[in-house]
Amino acid sequence: MKTSIPSMKLGLASAIAIAALGMTGCGGDDSNDSADLDANQAVGVVASSLLNTAIDTKDADHETVIPAGAILLDADNLAESAAEAFANIKDGDVIVFPAGYYHLPAQLKITGDVFGNSEDGRLHNITIMGSGVNETVLNFSALEKGSKGETKGVDGLLISDVDNLVISDITVVEAGKNAIKVENIDGLHMHHLATIWDGTLTKENGAYGIYPVNSKNILIENTFTRGSADAGVYVGQSQKVIVRNSIAKENVAGMEIENCEDAEFYGNLATGNTAGLLVFDLPIGNGKYGSNVRVYNNEMIANNEPNFAVVSDFAGGVHIAPHGTGMIILSTSDVEIFDNTITDHSSFAVAIADYAFAESPENLAVMPDSLVDAGLAPQTKYLSVYEDGYSPTVRNITVRDNDINNAGYAPDAEKLGDFLYLFDNFVPDTPEGTLPAMIFDGAGQTLTETGIEIPGVGTFPLAPYNVAYTTDDYICAYDNTDSTGATVEMGTPYNPFAIQGWNDGDLTPSPAASDAGFTCGQSRPSLAKTVVTIGDATYGCGTDDTTSPGCTAPE
């Protein structure tokens, strides 16, 4: 059922030979396939030729290397062979899927050390790999379908409780829920991977393609994602994260960094999505909130796809993302965005927003106990997550030295109606029906400055909008230009730098772009670089990578 093999490299010739053998493992029928599988058994046909979507991992010269002693799964009976290998996995195992396009009837799952061999209940030094991202395709279309937030739906690969995990050289398509989900991992390297829902973009597609969560020391590189009904690459509630040199195409969110601390996002391309990149902090109440996120040297190009996510009950779900979005920075702190190219977005290139972008502000404020006890006001449902450490405000966000072109020309009116009304009626020099290329909503900072009005009672500095902003907390935007060298300015309907003369608690919009004060002296220091440790190796811009733009040798 499985065979240990000596170390080998899969170049073109060997890939063709193994493909001829591996294709005999194909089975089943799937309406998503672009051709009949039985007609593609010829020597030289690689597995990815059966997809409508071309796979590009930004690394055409990559060679797949299979270590000596690896477990090569049986191409003629892959489902049983893989299930056996996953069920009996032990420390140090390398499991290799042969070349071919395979329909698998069940999820492949690893949940730590089930045999009790380790003191910590975890597995160590595990590798799951294919014979090449174009050569090995696993089709999980037989699994039960389900979207984010639903109890139904089955992930394709589900792996948890491992120290030092590598997943590489494989493509996962048509998963029931998420393509590759990994959780509670310390030391994760995901590279030369693809996750795809082929064909029509629909809410029936699975939610996440590449999906690490509740983990640390994560490196994701040279991956391709397409068709996710939430995010192609999503990293959540994790520490020490690098996502680099990857492509996200035609997802709702191309890539998303959520509730993550110490993260680097560079060298990536997001195109054809609803939104290119989301950096969110959401009120999930597990004590994990984001900070120190650097976003640089990426290309966000023409992310204008209509949003096809399932509309969830959770206010901060990806369904709120307007089509035509380059980046959204939502209710988080300590983010630096620089040296990116952000082009052709109908709604905006960059938006920075309080959680009030997703939830009504009156639902966010903590009401005094006296008013709640007297029945004069309901208490916010977010009280417990505030006590857990969450804040809906955005602080210390820097947007500098980006090349921004052709944004805000036809905003998503359904999702941005309030913004359009405010800019059309209150912000001078904004052409009707358009938005600035960069937007700071300003509402949270303004509420902090003015207090919040409780009708019939008075105006109060209510939590969480009762922590004053310092200059270190300000939103800064400077040295952003278009292709002609003209300055691209930040606009805001609620300008916290021009509140003089306002009535307390009155959120009357105020003039924005030219005197908003976003330049911040143009001297804010950069955030700290992130270094990821996997086994005995370290990774990062300026650590293992000294050739990418913006990366230099360590000092």
Q: Which oligomerization state do the chains in this entry correspond to?
A: single chain
End-to-end Cα distance, whole Å, is 51 Å
- What's the helical proportion of residues? under 10%
Radius of gyration: 25 Å
Number of helices: 6
Poorly predicted sequence stretches spanning 5 or more consecutive residues: 2-43, 499-515
Broad structural category: mainly beta
Number of beta strands: 35
Biggest sheet record: 29 strands, mixed
Mean pLDDT: 87
Could you say which overall geometry the principal axes of the C-alpha atoms support? globular
Can you tell me about this structure?
This protein has 555 residues and is mainly beta. It folds into two domains: 233 residues, no CATH class; 273 residues, no CATH class. Helices cover 10% and strands 34% of the residues. The strands form four sheets. The chain has a 29-stranded mixed sheet that branches. A two-stranded antiparallel ribbon has the order 2-3. A two-stranded antiparallel ribbon has the order 30-31. Strand 30 and strand 31 form a beta hairpin. The longest helix is centred in the C-terminal third of the chain and has 14 residues. The radius of gyration is 25 Å and the shape is globular.
Task: Offer a concise description of the structure.
With about 550 residues, this protein is mostly beta strands. It has six helices and 35 strands.
Secondary-structure map with pairings?
Blueprint: E1 2-5, E2 8-10, H1 12-22, E3 64-66, E4 70-73, H2 78-87, E5 94-96, E6 100-103, E7 108-111, E8 123-129, E9 136-139, E10 157-173, E11 180-196, E12 208-213, E13 216-226, E14 231-236, E15 239-244, E16 247-249, E17 253-258, E18 261-266, E19 269-271, E20 275-280, E21 291-296, E22 299-301, E23 325-330, E24 333-338, E25 341-345, E26 348-353, H3 369-373, H4 383-387, E27 395-400, E28 403-407, H5 413-426, E29 438-440, H6 443-450, E30 452-454, E31 458-460, E32 475-478, E33 490-491, E34 532-534, E35 537-539
